[in-house]
Structures are given as structure tokens and as C-alpha cells.
Design a protein that fits this description.
Cofactor: Zn(2+); Mg(2+)
Region (Disordered): 1-27
CATH class of the largest domain: Alpha Beta
Catalytic activity: a 5'-end NAD(+)-phospho-ribonucleoside in mRNA + H2O = a 5'-end phospho-adenosine-phospho-ribonucleoside in mRNA + beta-nicotinamide D-ribonucleotide + 2 H(+)
Shape: globular
CATH topology of the largest domain: Nucleoside Triphosphate Pyrophosphohydrolase
Largest sheet: 6 strands, mixed
Structural class: alpha+beta
Helix content: 10-25%
Distance between the termini: 50 Å
CATH architecture of the largest domain: Alpha-Beta Complex
Order of helices and strands: HEEEEEEHHEEEEEEHEEEHH
Radius of gyration: 23 Å
Strand content: 25-35%
Biased composition (Basic and acidic residues): 1-13
Protein name: NAD(+) diphosphatase
Number of domains: 3
Bound molecules: zinc ion
Oligomer: single chain
Length: 338
């Protein structure tokens, strides 16, 4: 067999032009100030013990919404027996500086598609909380609350879709304080799943930004190109392939910019910059992407101000990538992308 040729030098990981490393993207769903305390999960009596432990807080989730008051999640002390399906989310610092407090998630299926206030409140919960969705509130939460809420929504989606074994079809049962499901028929363990997707800020040689309008979106809504990583594919290859499929151009030099979970239901968005060398003409695929457009900074601000273009919401990595390229906060005539 012929040997694979090895490059004489490794690619330079720094941005083109020898510029200083780019600052980290501010990502509202990538804030984890809570110790997940993964080793504790293996204690089979953990949840019963935490239920009796001073300071434990229970976070109720109903239809993906959490109770919020004054810009903070509201947790309540444990009451009654440990509910089946409770999940140990981790330990957070306590306001009094004493030993960290455990947070346990109790997810309720009811409330999906209903108004923001369920008919009945879980025991001990104040009546003046608002039941709010993650996308609507995450940007204003503390790092600890944003991380807890993101983890809670993510793991709840996983439980909801993995009641049966993908291998043999048998029913699965929860283990490890909510972080494993084991098949009751074939004993295989199943772990929470995350689907990686790449999202790209593509620029040309004039430093214009390429945005696309998805065929499923209202007219005017624009965002970065994005797509799921395929089995057996690297992130960098997915960047090149997705831009090729959606825009008909070849990009080079993908540079990692940051990642954040997007638990709707289980994506991990991995953000890149990539460069489109001169001499190529973009073309929308006409199926997934309705139209494509290059923007200078001046053109983008004007299009947003005129209401001609709507940008993704503040919680999304797309917004962070666009503002990263822009070099600051963009005007706020925006709506949330769902
Ligand atoms: Zn099985």
C-alpha cells in the first residue's frame, strides 16, 4: 500500500494575516457555573439522600418552561417522595457561601403548547412565578441559571424520546440519577445524545458576510448558513460541504469560534468562520435556502433599519457570529428565530 503523503508543515492555526487570536464569542447557552458532579451520579441512593439534604433545590419544568421570578429561576425544597424520573443536575454555590447546594430536576409533560401558566403549581412553588421558555429568558439569566435551564431542557428532551431501546425495542429504565437509561430486556446502557451541527460566518475577500434566507422562514429573515454534521465527517469538512450544498461556493480556512447547546431538541451548534476566495458566484439551492446575499457592514445595518432584513435572536450562536464579524452590537429591530 502506498504511504499517505504527510504535509511538510502543519497548517497555521492562527487567523489569516497573523492577527491576534479572536476573543471568545459571548454565547448565552454556553454558560455553566454549576458543578455537574458526575461522579456522584453513580451512588444508587443519591436522589433519596439529596431529597433529605439541607439546601437541595428542586427545579420544576413544565412543557419545557421553567418558573422564573425577578430574572432568576425559582427552585423549591423537596416535598413528598422522590418523583420517578428526577434528574440530579449538579451543585451550585449557595448565597451564604456554605457548602454547595444540589439541584434536582423534576420534569412534567403537561403544559406543552399551553399558556405560560399551568393550571396547578407544584407544591411549594410561589404563585407569582412566570413559566418561561429557555429561548425567551436565557440571555437575562445568571450563568448558573442559564446552565441549569439549558441542561434541564436538554436532558428532558432525551428522556422523552428514549423510552425504548434503539437496539432491541425493549423498554428502558432510568439509572445514574437521570443520566443513563438501561434497557430492561437486553441490559444495554444508553446515554444522552447530542447532534453536532456547524454554523458558519462566511466572508469574501472584501470582508462582506454571506447570509441566507431559509425557505421555511418569513420573508426577510436572514442568518448564517448551517447544517448537521454527517456520520463519519469532521466538523471542518461539514463546514465546507454545507456551504457548497447551500450556496454553491467553496470555502477555505474554517476557524473554530465557539459552541453552544441548542436543545431544540438536541443540537450542539459549533460556530466557525470560513473564507470564500474571489471568483465564485453564490447560488441558493432553491430548496432549503430561498435566497443568499452578501452584506458589507453598512449594508447590513441599513437593511435591518429599513426592516428589509431580520436577524436571528440574541440567544442564538448565529447572532453572536454575525456580531463577531460586525465588530459590535447590531441594531435591535429583531425577532427570535425558532
Ligand atoms: Zn435492548
Amino acid at each position: 500500500m502506498p504511504e499517505h503523503p504527510r504535509p511538510a508543515t502543519r497548517p497555521d492555526p492562527r487567523p489569516a494575516g497573523g492577527a491576534a487570536p479572536l476573543p471568545p464569542l459571548p454565547l448565552p447557552l454556553a454558560r455553566e457555573a454549576v458543578d455537574r458532579a458526575g461522579l456522584e451520579r453513580e451512588d444508587p441512593g443519591l436522589l433519596d439522600r439529596l431529597w433529605q439534604e439541607a439546601g437541595t433545590g428542586v427545579l420544576h419544568l413544565r412543557g419545557g418552561r421553567a418558573p422564573v421570578r425577578d430574572g432568576a429561576l425559582v427552585t423549591v425544597p423537596p416535598a413528598g417522595p422522590v418523583p420517578p424520573g428526577a434528574v440530579f443536575l449538579g451543585r451550585r454555590e449557595r448565597a451564604d457561601g456554605e457548602a454547595s447546594a444540589a439541584v434536582v430536576l423534576v420534569a412534567h409533560e403537561d403544559g406543552a403548547g399551553a399558556g405560560s401558566t399551568p393550571d396547578t403549581a407544584p407544591e411549594g412553588l410561589p404563585t407569582d412565578v412566570a413559566w418561561v421558555g429557555l429561548r425567551d429568558v436565557a440571555a437575562g439569566l445568571s450563568d448558573a441559571d442559564a446552565g441549569l435551564f439549558t441542561a434541564a431542557v436538554s436532558v428532558t428532551h432525551w428522556h422523552a424520546s428514549h423510552g425504548f431501546c434503539p437496539r432491541c425495542g425493549g423498554p428502558t429504565a432510568v439509572e445514574s440519577a437521570g443520566w443513563v437509561r438501561r434497557c430492561t430486556a437486553c441490559s444495554v446502557q444508553h446515554f444522552p445524545r447530542t447532534d453536532p451541527a456547524v454554523i458558519m460566518a462566511v466572508t469574501d475577500d472584501d470582508d462582506r458576510l454571506l447570509l441566507g434566507s431559509n425557505a421555511a422562514w418569513p420573508a426577510g429573515r436572514h442568518s448564517c448558513l448551517a447544517g448537521f454534521v454527517e456520520p463519519g465527517e469532521s466538523l471542518e469538512h461539514a463546514v465546507v460541504r454545507e456551504v457548497g450544498e447551500e450556496a454553491g461556493i467553496v470555502v477555505v480556512d474554517p476557524v473554530y469560534r465557539g459552541s453552544q447547546p441548542w436543545p431544540f431538541p438536541r443540537s450542539l451548534m459549533v460556530g466557525f468562520r470560513a473564507r470564500a476566495p474571489r471568483g465564485q458566484t453564490e447560488r441558493a439551492d432553491g430548496v432549503e435556502i430561498r435566497s443568499l446575499r452578501w452584506f458589507s457592514r453598512t449594508e447590513l445595518v441599513a437593511a435591518v433599519r429599513d426592516g428589509e432584513v431580520t436577524l436571528p435572536g440574541a440567544v442564538s450562536i448565529a447572532r453572536a457570529l454575525i456580531e463577531d464579524w460586525y465588530g459590535g452590537t447590531l441594531p435591535d429591530e429583531t425577532t427570535l428565530i425558532s
